[in-house]
Every structure is written in C-alpha cells, then in structure tokens.
Amino acid sequence: MGNAQQQTTDEALRARIDPERVPAHVAIIMDGNGRWAKRHGEMRVVGHTNGVRSVRETLVGATEIGVKYLTLYAFSTENWNRPRAEVDALMDLLVNTLMSELDSLHENGVRLNAIGDLESLPGSCRATLAEAIRQTAHNDRITLTLALSYSARWELVNMVKRIATDVRDGRVDVEAIDDALVSANLTTAGMPDPELLIRTSGEQRISNFLLWQIAYAELWFSPVLWPDFRREHLYQAVLDYQGRERRFGLTSEQVGPA
Questions:
Q1: Which residues lie closer than 8 Å to 48 by C-beta, 6 or more apart?
Q2: Which of 23, 121, 136, 176 could, after both became Cys, cross-link 195 (CB 3.0–4.6 A)?
Q3: How many Å from the N-terminal Cα to the C-terminal Cα in the chain?
C-alpha cells in the first residue's frame, strides 16, 4: 500500500471513531518481532529494531484520537531468559531509542513513565530512562508507560508485601483493605485501568501482563506481527471496542438507556 493510499485508509478509519467513546487507557502486548525477523531472513534484533516504528506509529495514532494513557509491554521478567546477545541488543535499542526520540516526545506532549523491576535493568538503561522520564514529566497530552522487566505476579506479590507490612506496623487496618487500596499499591497507581488490551501476532493469551488492571478490559487480538502494526490497526481495534456493549456485570437492559 502506497503512502497516499495508506493515509486515506487511516483518515477514513479515524473519521469513524466516536471521540466521546475513545478508551482513556490502551495497553498493548507487542508480540511477533522474532517471527517477523525470521520471515524476512533476518536476525531477531532486526525485528525489534523495526518494531520501534510501530511504537512511534501507535503513539502518534493514540494521541491523535485522544487516548490519554498508552502502556506497552516492552520487556517481561521472563525475557531475561532469552539469549544474552538478544537481551543486550534490546537494552541498547532501548537506550538509543529514548535518546533519539526525546525531542519528538516533547513535541507531541508525551509524558514518559515506566513500570516493572527497574532495578534489574543495566545501569546505563536506568540512567537514560530516568533522565527521559524527568525531562518529559511536565508533558500532559498522553502518558506513555513502558513495562520493563515487568511481571504481573511480581507486581501482585510486592503489593501484598507492602500492605502486609502496613498492617503489621499498624498503618492499615485489615478491614480497610479494598480494591482501591490494592490499586494504590500497584505500579500503575494513579492511572485508570486499561479499557482496551491489544495483542499482536495472533497469540491469544495475557502472558502475565497487568492481571489485576485488565479485569474489565476489552481484549482485541490481531494476526499482524508487531513490526507491521500501524495506525490503521489501532483504529480498527478502537472501532471494535466502540462496537461492544460494556456491561460490567449488569444486564443489557440496565446499561442500554445510558
């Protein structure tokens, strides 16, 4: 598809989106970089490198339609078990991408955030990430959260430890523990829960991502490998989301009039 034709397709899809019902928070499991590289006869790191364009396209598209929070599953705790060369290349790619994209983040009003076991990242990655977060802290058009060395089970275990410690030390009464307290002790504290979760590459599983937060998220699975994911795919996901009835345990009759 040529650039002009692609732009026309993007604009047509975007025009169909109801701006009043855009999900405030979209989370994405970016899957398929390795398979994309294999399909093109390249090393896996080439797939990761090409995936950067998809991040850029998705971020711009999300910003254009009014999404306020975009969370990307960039690196799981399980990914540390991959070949050392691939992990090192991913860390270098993270640093280089953050440095090269910083001006663009500012221009588009992007506030950068990160969740996960960040202390496990190499020192150069932590320093670059912290600086990028500091420099974009006052941007307020959209918050881009990178889940790095992230595991939902790790997050939940740490939440339990924090609340248990507060109970033990008398800062929290057991009867005061509720959904809100749990949410306040997660890495996503202060953000709304994702309303739409997208996974690329045709896989249909959650892979230990935001298990508490996606309790009522709409799930959208795409066969497209992440390096081929573009704005049109994001728009298709949002349109599908807007066509669903979100009942939150109620009946259709109860939510229909609203």
A1: 33, 37, 86, 89, 90, 93
A2: 23
A3: 40
- Digit-coded pLDDT (tens) for 194-251: 999 999 999 999 999 999 999 999 999 999 999 999 999 999 999 999 999 876 666 7
Strands 69-76, 142-150: pairing is parallel
pLDDT tens column, 43-71: 999 999 999 999 999 999 999 999 999 99
Give me the phi and psi of 185, to 5 degrees please. -105, 15
**Catalytic-labelled residue, pool 79, 139, 158, 208:** 79
- CA 221 to the chain's CA centroid: 14
> Would strands 218-221 and 196-199 be described as parallel, antiparallel, or unpaired?
parallel
Tokens read off for 106? 């500012």
Beta strands in 34-99 (DSSP E): 69-76
Q: Where are the domains of the chain?
A: 22-150+193-228
31: annotated active-site residue = yes
Dist CA 105 CA 113 (whole Å): 12
Among residues 3, 18, 31, 240, the one annotated as catalytic is 31
Residue 107, amino acid: E
Q: Please name which of 194, 23, 20, 54 lies closest in space to residue 115, comparing C-alpha atoms.
A: 194
Cα distance between residue 14 and residue 65, in whole Å: 7
Q: Concatenated DSSP letters for 75-92?
A: EEGGGGGS-HHHHHHHHH
CA distance 84 to 186: 30
Residue positions counted in the chain: 258
CATH number of the domain located at residue range(s) 22-150+193-228 in this protein: 3.40.1180.10
- How does 123-153 read in b/e, with b if 16+ C-beta sit within 10 Å? eebbebbeebeeebeebeebbbbbbbbbbbe
